């Protein structure tokens, strides 16, 4: 005999009913047993039965009064919704590792992403499947897992040891725009804070001791602001564009050091050895260079061309042959300096104190000496020197 489990609505209890005669007979029996006016019969998959011959032993049937088929096990949701393409369970084979998820997970969170376009419509992209029916994706499973979890619950969670840059690259590949922003912030926050604190004397001395004497020391752009570097042997060191403002460099040996474009403003370099030093376009405004030695016996001349030396105190310094071309020495104190053979062409010497200076054979062509003091000069100026 055939039996029917008749459930007209989701709240009805299942019943066993004998099936015989015609479809009309079945509907009549079901109506009497269940107290409804049964008009339609469906099988367990929602298929409409129009002939009693289609019913088999132990089939579970559903009868109703004409409403669309509703499976009572689905909390009243329409059958079409449950079998729609957006809620199908599927398996992904990502680089040999399997992930089980739903189409809605891949589609709903980022509807414009590559993953959404791949799985929005069945076979829209002709996705390849392996022998187990899993969709093949040739990407890194390690980086794909955080992306899938993000699509599931909207949170960026990355296990220890996973490179965020790799996850970011995958997010860009799959077009998960909202995740890209999260990852860029996470990467930025994970970077160690830039240390702009000045290098101390202790740190620098340790560095000097650890470096062979024949090795070139490059300190370009480093921050030594306010450091005490007095009496240190700093010969031949490259300080190009370094911050040496307010440093104590008194009695330091800076022979042939490269201080091009370095900031020496407010620093103390009294009695420093500056033989052959390169200070092109450096900023030494307000610095103290009293009693410094720029004169190299071997003939190598110190080069301070274009330097900013406003208000510097260079009293008593030895500067034979020094190159101060187009440098700015406004308000500088150059009293009793040896400037024999110095290049001062185009130099701004306005309001400078040049009293007691030796300017024999110095080139002052085009220099600005407005307000400069020349009393008691060891070598008188001649008109041929073309000063202005």
Automatic annotation (TrEMBL):
<dbReference type="Pfam" id="PF00805">
    <property type="entry name" value="Pentapeptide"/>
</dbReference>
<protein>
    <recommendedName>
        <fullName>BTB/POZ domain-containing protein KCTD9</fullName>
    </recommendedName>
</protein>
<dbReference type="InterPro" id="IPR011333">
    <property type="entry name" value="SKP1/BTB/POZ_sf"/>
</dbReference>
<keyword id="KW-0833">Ubl conjugation pathway</keyword>
<feature type="domain" description="BTB">
    <location>
        <begin position="90"/>
        <end position="160"/>
    </location>
</feature>
<dbReference type="InterPro" id="IPR051082">
    <property type="entry name" value="Pentapeptide-BTB/POZ_domain"/>
</dbReference>
<comment type="function">
    <text>Substrate-specific adapter of a BCR (BTB-CUL3-RBX1) E3 ubiquitin-protein ligase complex, which mediates the ubiquitination of target proteins, leading to their degradation by the proteasome.</text>
</comment>
<keyword id="KW-0677">Repeat</keyword>
<dbReference type="InterPro" id="IPR003131">
    <property type="entry name" value="T1-type_BTB"/>
</dbReference>
<dbReference type="Pfam" id="PF11834">
    <property type="entry name" value="KHA"/>
</dbReference>
<dbReference type="InterPro" id="IPR021789">
    <property type="entry name" value="KHA_dom"/>
</dbReference>
<comment type="pathway">
    <text>Protein modification; protein ubiquitination.</text>
</comment>
<dbReference type="InterPro" id="IPR000210">
    <property type="entry name" value="BTB/POZ_dom"/>
</dbReference>
<dbReference type="GO" id="GO:0051260">
    <property type="term" value="P:protein homooligomerization"/>
</dbReference>
<keyword id="KW-0597">Phosphoprotein</keyword>
<dbReference type="InterPro" id="IPR001646">
    <property type="entry name" value="5peptide_repeat"/>
</dbReference>
<dbReference type="Pfam" id="PF02214">
    <property type="entry name" value="BTB_2"/>
</dbReference>
<feature type="domain" description="KHA">
    <location>
        <begin position="1"/>
        <end position="81"/>
    </location>
</feature>
